[in-house]
Amino acid sequence: MTESDREAPHPGYWPSAWPVECGGNRRQKARAGRLDAASGNAEVVFRNTGRWNVMAIERDPGEWFLGGTMAAFNGPPPYGWLERIHPESLEPLHTSDPLPCGDHVWCGAILAHANGSIYSVNGNFIHRLAPDCSVEGEARLPVDRAHNGLLALSDGSLITKDLRLEGQGGTTLTRLDPETLEVMEPPLVLPEGSMGRIAADRIPGGDAVYVPGTEHLWRIDVGEKMVVVDDWRPRYRDARGEFGLAWDSCLSGGAAWLMDCGDIQSVRAIFSVEPNGRFDQPPEGLLGWRRPAPWTGAQRLLRVDLANGRVETLTPFGTEGGGIIAPPVHVPELERAVCWDSLRGGLAGISTAGGGLSVAWTLPFRPSMQPVVFPESGELVINDFTESGSDDLVVVDLESGELIDRIYTGSRIANGMFLSPGGERDIYYCSTLGVARIAWH
User: Fold this and answer.
1) All domains of the chain, ordered by start, with CATH?
2) Is the entire prediction scored with pTM above 0.90?
3) How many C-beta atoms surround the C-beta of residue 202 within 10 A?
4) CA dist 221 → 10, 36, 118, 154, 211 (Å)
5) Half-sphere exposure (Cβ direction) of 172: Cα atoms closer than 13 Å
6) DSSP for residue 131
């Protein structure tokens, strides 16, 4: 990967601007073109689905799919689902049958594959679906745990992993044939658990897959087989209780960008039971993401050099007991990284000019979602969960930190789900119970 390149067309995906979460395997969350929120008025369409809406992806232009699960932490069994939605009204045009998930409750993933199918991982199942959301194939994954993240590699194969917190054993990576959904080789078990989703970059002969472990960032080279790179294993935390685990990474500018302090109390509660996220009694009070952090450290931004494994950290806010439920973003064109503290509050723009790390601006916002950036117009789109319980969308100038726009989405619940940019100066917003489209005219 060069210092400045963006997500290029990928042979594993349908030729789309947003075929997978974060727009591509490097998780750069960047959309070409401009939003220009300051020059228009935002119009919001909100749909209450009563479900856990995880992410929206685009196949052909204007062909949007919404995937998710059921927020069934107790009671009737949960299941995954896929909808093709109208790009403006958000109403379902096609809906899948309930997709088995092994009774696990967690946010899975969907993607639009180069072969034209939509793939969904949810719990310990993977499904292949046609564009009309009919099921073309189903397979139970080798490990009976919730899985998070699903990527297509450069040869078209699929890779996913289960989610394990500290003390829950080694995380398993599984590679599957996209046509048959058969496991291509024995699953690879890492020495550590892993919470964050995988990222990947193309290398000669295959792909490098990056896995945030409980103490180290791991690299798996995937060609004919999956192989752990033994001489690249940077440590980002010590198991001393001062900091929590890392969520996903963003591969940009020759580095992996992460934030730690992510296994907050609600995540620990969900993965303290099996099936994951299923309780005998209603888990009242257990799943609020703003419960105090189970560590003392302040929220950190981490930059890990992809060449030599050097780890640099920055503590933008300095407030003890920080925590997050989504990963950061780096915009190399503007020499900016963006990070935040969901528990204690704060959004920060970080200057990377001259190779350093320094705080350029801060805002008193409380983000929790996977953001979107428009490098050409220098805009960041992310959520702000307000003290009044409104989950707003905010547009921020990446260079100055100026608030450009604030939009009430209609959602009263914030989580760590995904924002997806459309091609019409619009953003798709996914959260528990509701989905929204915000368009500027």
Assistant:
1) 21-440 (2.130.10.10)
2) yes
3) 17
4) 17, 39, 25, 12, 11
5) 18
6) T
